[in-house]
Specification:
The chain is α/β, with parallel strands linked by helices. Helices cover 54% and strands 11% of the residues. The strands form two sheets. It has a six-stranded parallel sheet, with helices on both faces. A six-stranded parallel sheet has the order 9-8-7-10-11-12, with helices on both faces.
Length: 472
Amino acid sequence: MNTESGSAYLQGMALVEAGRHAEALVPLMQHVSANPHDVQAINDTGAVLYCLGRFEEAASCLERALALQPSSAEVIWNLVEVYLAAGKLEKLVELLPRMGALKLLTADLLNRVANAFIDRGDLAGAIEMLLHSLQIAPNQEVLHPMIEVIRSQRPKIAFFCGMGNDTKFLKDILAFTSQRYLVKVFESDTVDEMYKLMQWSDISWFEWCTDMAVKASRMEKVCKMVVRLHRFEAYEEWPGQVNWNTVEKLVLVGNSAVKSALTKKVPDIERRTTILTVPNGIDLSRYAFADRPRGKNIACIGYLNMRKNPMLLLQCMQKLHYIDPGYHLFYAGTFQDAMLEQYVVDMVGALGLQDVVHFDGWQEDIASWLTDKHYIASASIGESQGLGVLEGMARGLRPVVHRFPGVEEIIPAEYVFNISEDFCRHITEQPYEPAKYRKYVEERYPLSRQLEMIGRTFVDFERELVDSQVMV
């Protein structure tokens, strides 16, 4: 810092202390021009611009200071105040993760941001801030009625679950949505009751593209419709029976092979509805990472049926057992086919694997069951995503996955095998890096990303509904 510019800075700060902000700006800007890396001076100049109500210039100045010193609490706080005053709420929200990491985030700030969103008429933004505030300070009873009022003013959402009204695949989505909207889950079994709930709702979500979605799509239009297709439905007749012109969004879980099968059934589907791919997310808090040394316990998760192809996995284990009899294969799941069960049990004996292949049955707590395992294997001939493999990877298990159409869109090629000899090499020769497997799931399949994508879909519908009301 040269003497002249340093003198200008001191002069400027003295004028600030005297409350003469307009006069202070000239020497401060003179100093910053001569000292473009002086973070404190840039920050102080931004603060003066803020006091003068010149928010755009203040934001530009403080963003420059933050780029030079990303962890400065003073700069971050000043920039937050500028964004709040200027109504740049989206920019402010981008700073929140950084503030959280630096332990700067407070419930008071989040409540102020929520009020700013409310003043702007943005209920979606407001409720996100209030829910975040409650996470930080759960005892804020005053926020609960505010949240309820906001929920009551947002679209009503109904969920319809085919497959026997089983909501297990919707558990996290329901919890997320119910915090933000008024939600009802269809619990009846009649078409009339289904239509009544659709009439109540603004948005109806149909889990599984089965007969319920078909019937709903052919009724008089009363709400926005979302259909989520997992995998098997794409190979059945239902997609061809749906009136896709009445469905606003089709949500796919899986890879391009599933989509390819779907478009064979309905070649013009992409012209009739909007297709959105939202992979299932893994709740990493349920699958704690455990670093572990290389071991000899191989896990396989899921129902045992023809698609899961346990026959191939037995052939793989026979070769692995010949190389090293210390390896064991553990199944978590139940048989869905009596003939397959008979074959597999007989083959286990015929291959001499009765002491190394174990059928542990259905597991309610997969995370705990995986504690003493080292590899997560799959020989499936088709998956939308393969949640069991991803759950194992989240725990730190090395994946060993048989090739199926679209597999490399889900699992890196280095973990894919074609023949049983490849399977053995994956187990016995390839590197064992538990942290790498966990990181892959963290970066690609966190539950938060799935919920964020679904949340954006609902918000988009909400804006369309508001716009249509305004137009009317």
